[in-house]
Amino acid sequence: VANGDHDLMVASEHSEDLARRLPNSRLTIYPNSGHGGVFQYHHRFVPEVLEFLAQP
Questions:
Q1: What are the domain boundaries of the chain?
Q2: Cα separation of 3 and 36, whole Å?
Q3: Tell me, what's the pLDDT at 27?
Q4: What DSSP assignment string belongs to 1-56?
Q5: CA-based diameter of the chain, in Å?
Q6: How far apart are alpha carbons 7 and 34 in whole angstroms?
Q7: For residue 33, which of 10, 29, 37, 42 is within the disulfide window of CB 3.0 to 4.6 Å?
Q8: Percent of the chain beyond pLDDT 90?
Q9: Cα(52)–Cα(30) distance, rounded to whole angstroms?
Q10: What are the residues whose beta carbons fall under 8 Å from the beta carbon of 22, sequence distance 6 or more?
């Protein structure tokens, strides 16, 4: 689960709640970013997702 800490569409609290409810999930809150945090921080997001997906 990924979110920006200034996301106006999805509050970080909702992402935190979703991550708690999803088994084996990970949560990343990107600083100083909004709803497009995964694009702003693509250099972090892509490797993190690839690492997560490579797990059995």
A1: 2-54
A2: 8
A3: 98
A4: -EEETT-SSS-HHHHHHHHHHSTT---EEETT--TTHHHHTHHHHHHHHHHHHH--
A5: 34
A6: 4
A7: 37
A8: 98
A9: 17
A10: 1
